[in-house]
Amino acid sequence: MAIQISPSILSADFSRLAEQAEAVAGSADWLHVDVMDNHFVPNLTLGLPVVESLLKAVSIPLDCHLMIEDPDRWAPAYAEAGAQSVTVHAEAARAPVRTLREIRAQGARAGLALNPATALDAYADLVGEVDMLLLMTVEPGFGGQRFLDLVLPKIRAARELIARSGGSVWLQVDGGVSQETVERAAAAGADVFVAGSAVYGADDPAAAVDALRAQAEK
Ligand code: DX5
Ligand code: ZN
């Protein structure tokens, strides 16, 4: 299982997004773009126009994490714009099967995200509809929160579910991923790691990506 690192631009300088994206383009696999609407989560970030501009300006693929209400309406447009991965929240999607299929139909990878308190069981049947499962390891909305160890059993359960389904679905964790926590998330079975403050809070973001990868591969 190849380890992938997806730095979150939530912790970057929003006045220099393209530059901050390029700072990790040589070392990271993805750029994680946190779309927040101030309704699904109590924070507001950016939306489709900014993603469209980033797609033109940066060389790294975009991993768009939609923390918004009504993702059924908006998610396909991100895929259509050219985002290489689009993830919707299970708690917000009213027609997740249709939405995931629409994302894939536009040629993007489709992701389904679960908040820390959302049980995996209710969504197990959707494993064949997704390219990635995202397990939140903090309550979504803000960077710089502490990694929730209570999610570790769900990471293990998701890894087992993915193995039973043929093993091609990626398992992403997002929230509180650092040099200290990445190892236990990896040991539990995660293979794609989002890191905001651990990357953009570092003096050398590219070196921070390399360090996280090395720690996850241990
Ligand atoms: C939180 C976002 C995360 C956030 C992670 O709701 O989904 O992607 O940027 O930030 P850190 O790595 O600082 O916890
Ligand atoms: Zn995120």
Automatic annotation (TrEMBL):
Q: Keywords assigned by UniProt? A: Carbohydrate metabolism, Cobalt, Isomerase, Manganese, Metal-binding, Zinc
> InterPro entries recorded for this chain?
Aldolase_TIM, Ribul_P_3_epim, Ribul_P_3_epim-like, RibuloseP-bd_barrel
Catalyzed reactions: D-ribulose 5-phosphate = D-xylulose 5-phosphate
| Highest taxon listed in the record's lineage | Bacteria
UniProt cross-references to Gene3D superfamilies, sorted A to Z: Aldolase class I
Per the record, its GO cellular-component terms are: cytoplasm
Q: Name one GO biological process term.
A: pentose catabolic process
Pathway(s) annotated for this protein in UniProt: Carbohydrate degradation
| Chain's role | Catalyzes the reversible epimerization of D-ribulose 5-phosphate to D-xylulose 5-phosphate.
Please name the NCBIfam families in this protein's record: PRK05581.1-4 (NF004076), rpe (TIGR01163)
Query: Would you tell me the protein name for this molecule?
Result: Ribulose-phosphate 3-epimerase
Organism, by scientific name, is: Streptomonospora mangrovi
Query: From which lineage does this chain's organism come?
Result: Bacteria, Bacillati, Actinomycetota, Actinomycetes, Streptosporangiales
